[in-house]
């Protein structure tokens, strides 16, 4: 299905537009299985969906779109599948970032991506640098990301500052913790979507999603597109957020 930019823009109008949408892209394997295809076919189609959704985020005027691409737990998958996923990522950074960059997309990465293969790390760093002045939409890719590891890392960094005599433990506030997270310069997600019908967070943005509106949709990730993103943004507008107040 195609949808005009005007429709997409209209869906994004009003105060109730999320500034930051975060997505757990799930269901590639099941998409492939239902077609008797290998899992890699689902991941390939999932990458296409990701590209379309980034374009949709730009059209909707979202400031930030975070995509959960590889978790710290995904290393538990068979080596072949991990290698296929890294291959797709390499292709995406090499060939697709360019077009997105031309559309004003800035790339950021959260997670311990430095642990990936050195050539991939280099490609990622180059893409981050190349797009750093773009201002339309920031695409945040969560790579080798796990919220528990992220929070443990923040605790470690704070402990080191205390040990160096630069920080008094009594001064440690939520803001201090936030300043040590990978997302230190990214606002928290307003809307968090998970596809494929699973209703869990799988170690994604556990701190940052404290007040995010959660949406679980049955659509498998390879079938998710611009229209689904626009629909989620529209549904978000009907949610009442309270942040603990009245
Ligand atoms: C999401 O699809 C992609 C990644 C986790 C990298 P899955 O591969 O988890 O697909 P299912 O959940 O097996 O269907
Ligand atoms: C979450 O999906 C991770 C990503 C989408 C990258 P998983 O498919 O790995 O999550 P679980 O294992 O079903 O919780
Ligand atoms: Mg899954």
Question: Could you outline the blueprint of secondary structure elements for this entry?
Answer:
Elements: H1 5-11, E1 20-24, H2 28-33, H3 39-60, E2 64-71, H4 79-102, E3 105-110, H5 118-130, E4 137-145, H6 147-163, H7 174-178, E5 191-194, E6 213-216, H8 226-237
Helix pairs in contact: 3-4, 3-8, 4-5
One 3-methylbut-3-enyl trihydrogen diphosphate binds next to helix 2.
Number of strands: 6
CATH superfamily: Decaprenyl diphosphate synthase-like
Q: Strand order within the widest sheet?
A: 3-4-2-1-5-6
Distance between the termini: 40 Å
Low-confidence stretches: 1-10
Helix content: 40-55%
Q: In DSSP terms, counting alpha (H) and pi (I) runs of 4 or more, how many helices?
A: 8
- What is the CATH class designation? Alpha Beta
Strand content: 5-15%
The run of helices and strands is: HEHHEHEHEHHEEH
How many structural domains in the coordinates?
A: 1
- Which ions, cofactors or small ligands are bound in this entry? 3-methylbut-3-enyl trihydrogen diphosphate, magnesium ion
The outline comes out as: globular
Radius of gyration equals 18 Å
| Helix and strand composition category | alpha/beta
Q: What is the CATH third-level topology name?
A: Undecaprenyl pyrophosphate synthetase
Give the integer mean of the pLDDT values. 94
- Major β-sheet profile: 6 strands, parallel
CATH architecture label:
3-Layer(aba) Sandwich
Which features would summarize this protein structure in a list?
alpha/beta, 246 residues, Undecaprenyl pyrophosphate synthetase, binds magnesium ion, 8 helices
């Amino acid at each position: 299905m195609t949808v005009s930019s005007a429709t997409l823009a209209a869906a994004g109008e009003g105060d109730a537009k999320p500034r930051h949408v975060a997505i757990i892209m799930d269901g590639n394997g099941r998409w492939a299985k239902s077609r008797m295809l290998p899992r890699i076919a689902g991941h390939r189609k999932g990458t296409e969906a990701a590209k379309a959704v980034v374009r949709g985020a730009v059209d909707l005027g979202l400031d930030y779109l975070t995509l959960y691409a590889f978790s710290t737990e995904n290393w538990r998958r068979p080596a072949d599948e991990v290698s296929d996923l890294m291959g797709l990522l390499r292709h995406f950074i090499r060939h697709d970032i360019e077009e997105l960059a031309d559309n004003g997309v800035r790339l950021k990465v959260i997670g311990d991506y430095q642990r990936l293969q050195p050539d991939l790390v280099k490609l990622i760093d180059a893409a981050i640098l190349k797009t750093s002045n773009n201002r339309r939409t920031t695409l945040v890719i969560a790579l080798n990301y796990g919220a528990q590891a992220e929070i443990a890392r923040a605790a470690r960094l704070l402990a080191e500052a205390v040990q160096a005599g630069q920080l008094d433990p009594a001064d440690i506030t939520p803001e201090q913790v936030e300043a040590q997270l990978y997302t230190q310069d990214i606002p928290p997600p307003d809307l968090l979507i998970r596809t494929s019908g699973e209703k869990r967070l799988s170690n994604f943005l556990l701190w940052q999603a404290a007040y995010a509106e959660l949406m679980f949709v049955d659509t498998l990730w390879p079938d998710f597109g611009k229209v689904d993103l626009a629909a989620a943004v529209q549904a978000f507008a009907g949610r009442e957020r309270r942040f603990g107040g009245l």
